[in-house]
Every structure is written in C-alpha cells, then in structure tokens.
Amino acid sequence: MQSKGHLLMFATKKDIPCAILGLITMVIASVGSPIQTQIYGEAFEKLSKYVSGEYRSIGAFVSDIRLLCGLIMVVGVVRMVFTWVSIHVWLIVGERQQKRARKLLLTGLMRQNLEWYDSKENLMGTLAQVNRCIEEIRVATSENVALLVQGTSAIIFLLISAMISSWSLTLVIMASAPLMALSSVVFGKLTLRFASKENSSSAEASKVLDWCFVSGNLVRLLNGKYEDSVSFNRIVDSSAKAFTKMTLAICSSQSVLRTLSFLIFVQGFWFGSFMVSTGRLSIGQVFTAFSSCLLLGTHITTVASVLALLNKGQAAAATIASFMKKDDYFTLGDPDSAEKCFDPIVTGRRIRFDCVSFTHKNSEKQSLHDLSFELRNDNINFIIGPSGCGNPILILDEALSAIDFHTRRTLLRRIRAWRKGKMTVMISHNMSDIENNDSVLTLQAGKVREYEQYIPSSHDDKEVVNVNASIDDLIVHEKSESIFSSEETHNSREVNDLEAQGDQRDELKIKSVFSIFRDCFHTIPRKWIIGTSLMLSLISGVLTPVLSFCFSKLLSNIVNESAKASPPNHGAVFWSVLVIGLIIGDGIIYFMAHFLITFSSEAWIVKLRKKALVAINDQDMSFFTQKYMKPAELTALLMNDSRDLRNLISEFLPAALSLVALTLVGVIWSIVSGWKLALVGTSFVPLILLITISYGTILSRIEASYKNKIANIEKYNHNAVSGVKTVKAFGIADNLEKQMQEKLAEISSIAITRACFTGFGYSLSEMCTCIATAVILYYGLFLVARLEYTYESMLQVLTLLTFTMTSASTLMSSLPEIARGQRAGTLFAKLLSLTASSIETSGSKTALRLVRDGEPILNFRSVSFSYHDRQNDSYRRVLCNMSFEITKGSIVGIVGASGSGKSTVASLIGRLMDCDTGRISFNTQEIIEYDPQWYRRNIAIVPQHPKFFEGTVWENLTYGVEKPFLTKDFVIGYLKVCNMWDLIASLPYGMDTQLDERSVSSGQLQRLCIARALIREPKLIVFDECTSNLDRINTKMITELINFGITEANPQTTVVVITHDVEIMEQLPEILVLKNGRVDQRGKYADIAHQEGELNRLLSQH
C-alpha cells in the first residue's frame, strides 16, 4: 500500500511569493478571454445594427470595428506578457521542488545506516523509478499548474461574462456541466490507480536492468542474459497493460468532455434563437454568451487534460512518499552518528568497548557477544579472527590484502610511519603483517579470545593465514585485480570518480524528429494500427472545418432573426441535427485515434526496450565505460526517458497530421467561400509555422542540455548509493551533498533559460492567434460593409480560419514534450545501431571433441592484450605474447605480482574480452568459434567477491542454468560437496528461502558460490582469488575442495586457481608465475620457489 503524498510535498514557504506572482499574472492573463468574448459580441452587435440600417455611413461602422479589433490585439499582447511571466514563474517553482526532492533524496539516503540498505529490496530499481517520479512532479507542479490556473480562471471569468450577458442562456448552455464534472472524477480515479501500477512495474523492471548492467560480467559468465531478458520482457509487458488501461481512462475522459463541450453549442442555439426572435436578447448578448460558453468548453477540455497529467503526478508523489516514509527515511541515521565508522586520522587516544553486543536486523544469531576491549594509540592495533566472528563490522577492514607481497609491505611501512602516535586499527587475516609490540585482538564467535601485545615465535614467522583479501564489507568499490571488479568500476567507481564522470564535455548531437523516425521505423510494431490511428486523426482534422461551417450556418440564422433580413430558417433543424451527428462522430473518432496511437506508441516503446536490452547484452563490458552508457544512465533511458520518446508518436504525429489536414482543408474551403478574406488569413499560417519551427529548434537544444544535467545527477545518486559503504567509511556524505548542491545549481542556471523560452512559446502562440483573429475579423466585417461578402460567407471564413489558427498554435505548446523525447530518441537510435561484439555473438560450434587425459584442454598461443583508456585515447599493454597450455583434468595455479595479468587471463578464458593478437583454444578449437552460451556452460569462474541477487537460494544457484535438466537432488549433491547442505537445510524454507547475505558468513557465501559453479558441471573452472576474504579455516576447506572435492565429484574437471596465498600455492600440483604479461616460471612450488625468478622475488619480500 502506497503512502499518501501530494504534488506540493516539497514546497516551502519560500515558494509562496513566486506562487502568488504566478497566480496573479495568470489570473490577469485569463481575464483576456471574457474581454475578448465581450468584444466579439460587440462587433456582431455593430454588424447587426449596420445590416438593419442604424449606421448612417460605412465609415462610421468601419471606424467602430477598427477600434474593437485593435482592442483584441491589445488584449492579445497583454495576455502574452502576463502568460509569459506566469509560466516562467511556475516553471521556476517546479524546478525548486525538483531541486529539494533530489537534495532530500541524497541526504536521506546518506543518513540511513547500513542495516537500512540491507533491508531494502529492489533499492536500485526503486531509486530509478523515484528519479522519474521526481521529474513527473516537476512537470505537474510547473507548466501544468500554470495551465490549470489559467483554465480555471478563464472558466470562472467566462462563466461570469456569460451570466452577465444572459444568465438564462448560460444556464441552458451549461446544463451538461454536472456530467463533465462526474466524468472528470470517475476517470481521474482510474487514471491514478493505473498510473500507480505502471510505476510499480517500472521499478521492478529497473531492478532487473540494474542487476544486468552493474553485474554484467557475472550475468554473461553464468549465461543469465536470456533469463534476465525473459524476466524483463514479462515485467515491461505488465507495465504496458497498466499504461494501456490508464490511456483508456484518459482518452475516455477527454473524448466525453470534448463531445459535451461541443454539444453545448447546439443546446444553446435554439434557446438563443428563440430569445432573439422574441426580442428578449440582442444579437450581441447572444454572441457574447455563445462565445464565452464555447471558450469555456475549450478550457474545460484543457483542464481535463491537465488533470490527467496531475493525476499521474499524484501517483508519482505517492510512489516517492512510499519510499521516503517519515517513520524510517528521515529519522533513521544521522550524518554525525557512528555511521562515520572510519576516519583515517583519528585524533583520540583510545577506543573502548564495554559489553557490546550486536545482532543483524534480520538475523536471530548474535554477531557480537558482550564484547569488551580497549584500543590504544601507542601502536598498531590488529583485530584477527575467523570469518563470521564479527570483525567485518569494524574499521580499516582488510585494506592491504588484495595486493602482492612487495607492494603490501611498502604500503604498510609507510602507514606505520605516518600513523606513529595515532590511533590505528587494522582488521586482518594476515598475521605476517603484525610486528613486535603491535596490539592484537583475537575474536572468536563474536567474543574476545585474546588481547595482548604480539611477540613472534618461530612458528609464527612463517604462518600466513591469508595473503590476499579485499575490502569487501567496508569499501566495496576499491579496485582489485579480480575480473569481477570491472563491472563495478564501470558503474560505481571510487568516490573521486563520482565527480569526474560528470565532467566529460562531449555533447550529444540531438537528431531531428524525422531522423529518429527514419532510424527507428523498422522497430515499430503493428504499423497498420498506427496508420489507422493517423487516418482517424486526419478525419478528425477534416471534421473541424466541417463543424465550423455548420456552426456558421447556425450563427447566420441567429443574425437573420436579429436583423429580420429573412424569415426564420427552417433549415436550422437540418443543420442542428447534422452538427449533433458530427459532434458525436468527432468524439468517437477522437477517442479511437488517440487511444490507438497511444496504445501503438506504448507497444513501440516496449519493443524498443526489449531490443535495446538485447543490443546492450551483445556488447562486451567496455561498452559501459562510454559516455551516456553508464549502467545508471541506461536504466534511466530504458525505463524513464523512453516515456518521453513515446510522446513523439502519441503527441507529435497526430498533432502534425491534424494541423496539415486542418490547414489544407480549412484554407481551401475558406478560399472557395471567400478568397479575399481567406488570403489575408492564410498569410498568418506560414508565420506561425516559421515561429513554431524556430522555437522548436532552440527548445530542443535547451531541453537536451537540461536533460543531460538531470541524467548526470541521477547517475551521481546511483553511484553514491552503490558506493555507500565507501561514503560512510570515510565520512564524506557531507562532501557529496555539497557536490550535489553544486550540480543542482548548474541545473538551476539552465532551468531559468528553459523556463524563459518555454513560457515564451506558450504565450507567443496565444498572441499570434489573437492578432490573426483580430485582422481576419476586421477585414471580414469591412468586406461585409462594402457588400463584397455576405455575413454568412464572412462567418464561414472567419470560423474556418480561427479554428485553423488555434490548431496551429496548439502544436507550439506541445513542443517541450517533443523536445524531451528527441534526446531519448537519439540515444535509442544509437543503441539500435550498435554492432554486436564478436565476443558475445560470434561462433556456432557446440560439440566438444573428446580430449584425452593429458592432452591440452586450454591453450594460449602468443596472446597479447591491451586495455583501452577512452578518456586519454591510449592503450596499456597487459599481456605480451603469452603462451601456455593446461592439460585436461589438471589443477594449475596462476600467481604473480599485481598488474602481471592474472585476472586478464581469467577474463579472456571467460570470453569477456578478446585478445589483440594470438590464439586462445579450448578443446583444440578457438574459443571465438564456439557458441557463447554453450562455451560458458562448459567453463565456470568463481570470483573473489561472492555476488548474489535478491532471490531465493534455489534461484541464485540455478541462475542461467537450463532448468529442465536440474533436480533438487542434483543440486543438493553439490551443496554437500561444498559442505553447505546442512546450513541450507536448516533455513526456514530450505532452498526456497530468500538469500540473506547478512546472516551468512563470507566463507559460507564463497562455498555457495563454488556450488553454483559446480552445478553447471563445467569442463574448466577458474578460481579467481576466491579465498581472499576468508580466514584460515575456510581457506583450508576451499583448498581441500579444490584439490580433492572437485576431482572426486568429476575427475575430468580442469581447475585453474588464481591466488596470492602461499599456502594454496604450496598445495597446488603446478603453478604458472607471470611477470610483465608473460609466463616467467612454471612448475611445482617446491621446485621453483628457491630458483632465481619472479616467484623467489615475491617471496623474498614476504
């Protein structure tokens, strides 16, 4: 159940002056509508007097008309100024709401403790949806509020004007108002309900995308791309169903209101004609009431459209409110609390724990039990203990373990010199780092086992618990050699990169609307539905001049009644019936056209999302280092910005086609009816179109720049949340908030320019319509006075041209939405034009030639590889003509200094990258010749950091595996091999229990990760620093599993172990020692450890 939220949930008292200014200026601008209707009525009153002979000369009549038309122009100019100011101000109000929302979002997230993050399901997916909801609130509280104020004010003033002219006629005309109100309420509730469902589905889809992009290496290695695509397709299909139902409600509301607003003309015609014929009302009063009510109906339709958007904004506010719950979002955590768990320069003299106990929120087992100790600043304090004993929750966690011996020793020596006399705490499994007189705190089962100064013994000199560990629980995004660090550095880089990513200056070249359609045309499904909807839009556009012609016939009947120029027009019944039929037909056609085009545009967006995901999955991991292609940006593009792209079809195409049809038919018809007046009127059409095109071009650039800034902020938020442990560890949340403030200030700067141009576009369209109407009215009445036109012909041309001008100006008001969609369309076109990486798509072989024991199963022959630095456009050579082979069923270790190429070898084996030169063979065939999915089913890589998604144990273990071939007994067998079945069986629902990483130790997670690899029964398995997080006991268990368990389960399996751990090296039958991208030594550890070479050099530093 969503928490209640409202559109102004981020508003403050500081917004009141702007809101008042926007309200007053828009109300003043709205006064122009009733003033214009009064002027129209007065003009026709003058015409009636002229026809009846009350004017003595044509000059006096023309003079009075000239004055009235001049007043219409003045009103138009004044309305433009006040409308411009009002919309500009309301856009600024919306920007302020967005600014506060984004600032509050980051601040609130940074103030949550780590338990809050662990307890949140689908956090990244929800965050992506919240970003979109913030944008929807901004839209709802800016120009839409301005249009709501304008429409509401105009309705009130027009109603007052109509009541003053003729209260009786007004009441008759507005008899259908209750039906309009009822329709708005009913369909508004439906819109709100289905908008909320769409938001919920979008958040689920964003979760899948975030996993797929951020964990791209793992997804590819586990063959999870297809499974993720199926899941994503199912969710976006569900989202499309909710959107379709919402569209059905919106289109129904708009078509009903459109029909009722047009029908008020007919229901008031007969009563008005009767009142004129009996002399109770003058022609001027009737025309004033008529024009007021007609404009009132138009404004009601506009308000209904705005209310539909406000309902979507209300649904967005509810989504945000459900995320920012008052009971946990604003109160949990504090920026000055203990969450700043590490300060590299601790100035205190001691830290004391007195009987401290701790239990994870979702765990029944205590992690710490009555812990008491004191840490002093006179030396280095080491905290050691097995995995799961409680030490990962403390500070400086395994900071030096992920590097080779020599580099670690150098850094440790410098840290000791720097930290002399200062409080320093190091959590480690590596006893070789401890020196004489260091304080050592040993934890076991969450309790202090020993706390004393360290005095080495002969046994301790050589004892190494673990050489290579990572900062997994504190600084999750520190770079390491593991190939699985790459998917994080592509997305959630170290904190310094949070700012650097936003400083790239190459701007995206925005495509034109027609270029986007050309590039994406082949992706549009069911084109016949779009063709049908466009044809209906064309018919709807043609019906407008037809209706205006029929209206003119009815109006001329009232003029006849007033002037007594002819007997009552008995054909009025015919025209009334015809108008009613056309109005009902127009309402049905309007509904069908808009529903079908919106339905088709959603189907197009769904297909684009699916095709884009496939295109992205067919890229190698270097793709995510490109600008605009970071995981957070791609998730926002596919799920959020695609909604803007949808408007290019649902809004632009029907509006443009209707405008063309209306312009051509209206102009041709008006020329036939009266060419002189028609030519004067049509001269404004090119001007309005020129202004519209120029305005659209400028606005598209501004919108693109604005959207780029928004995308950078959303990416910044995503990276900050992904690296929250780093942020909290170094206490830099305040710095991030300051940087966010600077980014928001940049947006505010461009937002002012955007508000100025957007307001100008809205107001300019109104002014052009007013000026064109005034000129046409003046010249038409002048021609009638000179007897060159009949008043009936003049009314036909006037109504035709007025409808044409109004429709042309409405296109200008929709340009901001179109401009927002152009950026998304440009990026989608870029995705669709991607060439699939050969690493992910090439190859079709699936059958393995049987390789005998002792024959090579993996062969590197003269392999070279370089990393491409896109920022500097340079290359860093990692492997240089590397050659080696590994025989079937063997166990081989790969060791070397940091940067020697170990993990690059693993990446090449996993077919995550392609070598520059050379040949990599698996079972005598080049790996590039195999089908990627089949190949990866026959290899497995166990990463340094265990990584699982939100799901059950079963779902994680069988992720990417062909499910029909799996049975629970089969999976249980491998869980027993990894000594994990007893733990899994003890869970509440066994393998159907949701996997909670907080309640499982790092050693257990790593063994679960190994079980996931073994379930695939690979021919080759690579362990990439998989013991680096583990204590001595767990390291020993996994080493035994590597040396004995795997071979016993499947003797044909070949094992490659990448490690820094000396104990593991000693137990491996054979090791390869890498140096400078080449194999420097090969053999048994005991044979080459004392030989001159790279291994001896590394060990001598140990």
TrEMBL record:
Residues 858-1101 form the ABC transporter domain. Gene3D superfamilies: ABC transporter type 1, transmembrane domain, P-loop containing nucleotide triphosphate hydrolases. It is a multi-pass membrane protein. One of its GO terms (molecular function) is ATP binding. InterPro entries: AAA+_ATPase, ABC1_TM_dom, ABC1_TM_sf, ABC_transporter-like_ATP-bd, ABC_transporter-like_CS, P-loop_NTPase, Type_1_exporter. The keyword rRNA processing does not apply. The chain crosses the membrane at residues 65-93, 145-165, 171-192, 255-275, 287-310, 528-554, 574-599, 652-672, 678-699, 767-787. GO terms for biological process: oligopeptide export from mitochondrion. Keywords: ATP-binding, Membrane, Nucleotide-binding, Transmembrane, Transmembrane helix. Residues 20-312, 533-820 form the ABC transmembrane type-1 domain. This is Antigen peptide transporter 2. It comes from Candidozyma auris.
